[in-house]
User: Fold this.
Amino acid sequence: MERTKISGIKISIWDLMPHPDNPRKNVGDVSELAESIKKNGIMQNLTVMPEECLTKEPEEQPNIKKESSKKYYVLIGHRRLEAAKKAGLSEVPCTVISNISKKQQVGIMLEENMQRHDLTVWEQASGFQMMLDLGSSVDEIVEKTGFARSTVYHRLNIAKLDKDVVEEKEKDKDFQLSIKSLIALEQIKDVEKRNELLEMSDNIAELNISIEDAVEEQQMDENRENVLPILKELGIETYKGNNFYSWNNSFEVVEEIDLREEFSSEDFDIDCQEKLYYKEGSCCIYIFYKKKQEKRKKTKEELEREEKNKRIKQLKELYSEMVKKRKRQIKDIVVNKTNKRPDDIILVKELWSVLKEYCAYLQYGHYGAMVTGKSTWELTEEEKEWPEDLSINEEMLVEIANLEACPIDYYGRFDIEKANKERKLYDALANYGIKLTEEERQIITGTHELYNEED
Assistant:
């Protein structure tokens, strides 16, 4: 349907509304334009359309030569309208058009704003995308706006980004967002990744570095997807062990595929009769085989070391059994009240002397652990409480049950200082009928056959 048009109509500024699809979202500072309008008036008509044109098809829109509308949307002249309001005008001269499609409306606004070169990058991108959504082709957008085809494509890619993030960076003067960096983002195929990099960067330099890193990572991922099927086709299996390192003497690396470079099956030329495996690294794939490990006779030093480690293990196991045994014996005295002794001052002093020797003290939960067999951290608050009917020496016995001073050090040597602590502990426990067996006595005196002269 042919577009209808009437020029020179005066319309109240309160009957004029900004078009909701105007690519330009911010008209900016209109103070200077308002001063000019006060002096010279409005020199150019605003282009407006009846409000029905926003929702109706062109053929259903009013014929402005025959019908009048109460409200109008502005197509061209948004800045002039705001300046007229600021200048105090009550009405402005307008050209009213009707029978216009949505696509034509956006095209008129976009073309007008593009000619003024004052749209932000995001406003340009949104405008191009809107025209595309309304059925325009890239060629039509190029023709209407005068922009190069490559520029239109770049803007359409920018339109895929998160609107809020782009606008936030545009407003941030310290960020200094550039069209060059936005175009560089197009190298990243994943739009979500583009948004993430833009949002996480604090300035343009950081964004550019992030783009370079992401592009390299993307390239490596693509190369990895190309390489792995080739390896599978060649019968090279992934190595499932966790002990592979390229410098490990148990493996022979025959090829390192750099994922930062393109790779094809023609690049793979390995003459190897061994079973090949591959392992993925951060930026390369290692291809290798496992070396055959020859069994060798152990040296005299190795045999002596094994024998010594065996002796150390046996000695420590014997001592561990001693500790467990005396814990059971002390529990029998404290909990089951066997061989109960009064709080004789001499006995109390002996027990106290042992605690001082070990720098020990009464600890919350030790009695509950002895009774229940649980660890202290597994006890309830109630189980951690010390019973009020325990005597002084029984409380000290509970702590003595938790003391250990293993007389065998890390290297299997006899530790005289710790052995003296153990002997003093058993001297005190002898008053309660707890005595050492001959083998136990040999453990804490250093006379057991498992010790040698060096120990």
User: Anything to note?
Assistant: The chain has a mean pLDDT of 87. DSSP finds 17 helices and nine strands in the chain. The first helix runs from residue 31 to 40.
